[in-house]
Amino acid sequence: MTQQPSLQQLNDIVEPNDASWWPPSWVALVVVAVALILVAIFIIWGVRRWQESRTRKTAMKQLLQQNNSSVEQLTVLLKRTALAYYPRELIAEKHSRNWLIFLLAALSDKERVLFEPILEQADKNFYGIADDAFRQSYYQLAKLWLSKDLSKQPGAEHV
Length: 159
Description:
This protein is mostly helical. It starts with 25 loop residues before the first helix and ends in a 12-residue tail after the last helix. It has a domain at 55-153. The chain contains 8 helices and no strands. The chain has helices spanning 26-65, 71-82, 88-92, 96-105, 109-115, 117-120, 122-127, 132-147. The chain is 63% helix and 0% strand.
C-alpha cells in the first residue's frame, strides 16, 4: 500500500503576482497613437477656425465703428476680409455688380431677396456719388455678410 503524505508536509499554494501593465500590448499602443493623432487634428482644426473667426470678428468691429463710412471704405473692408477666406484671383475680379452678387451668394434665399434691389443701382453708386439709401443698404448687407461663417461659403475651400 502506498502511504499518503501527511498534511504537515504539504506546502502552501503561492499565488502569482498581478500582471504588469507595462509594457503595453501593440493594440493598446495603436489605440493611444490614434487617440493622440485625433486630438492633434482636433486642436489644429480648432485653432484654424478661431483664427478665421477672429478675422471676421475684427472686420465686424471695424464696420460697427465706421457707421457713416463711404461705399469705397465699406468695399475695402469687405474685400480685405474676403481675402482671408477666398483666393486673391476670385476677389480681384469682383467689382460693382459682380461684387454684390458675390456678397449675396453667402446669404439665404430669404435674405437675398431683401438686398437684390441694390443690384440695379450698383454701377451708378459704385462709380459715381453714392446716394444715402444705397450706402445704408450696402452697410446692412456688409453687416449681414460678416455675420455669416465665411469659411463654409462657396469658394472658401480653395484657400
